[in-house]
Fold:
Amino acid sequence: QVQLVESGGGLVQAGGSLRLSCAASGSISAINAMFWYRQPPGKPRAFVAFITNGGGTTYADSVKGRFTVSRDNAKNTVYLQMDSLKPEDTAVYYCHAPGLTSWGQGTQVTVSS
Structure:
């Protein structure tokens, strides 16, 4: 099974930007869709964004217009560009694919006001 490792999180001030990466241990070219989720402290994991192998994207209303998801199949990597960050974006961010039964450790994003 493909293993996914998230990176790129950190501490940033409100209004700042971060780019998260999701590196796969194997090819993602045959995976139809890749997802980003996030889990704020004390809250359930929630959907953030979705990208198909054709480049189509979907976003949660809370991040639409601020976040951009992309993929580089040659590098087996999915990205999440986050702009105009808000304190409410603070969470652990995870990438995932349909059919995977496990989740990675995620990457922590903290936005200060």
Summary: The chain has a mean pLDDT of 94. The first strand starts at residue 4 and ends at 7.
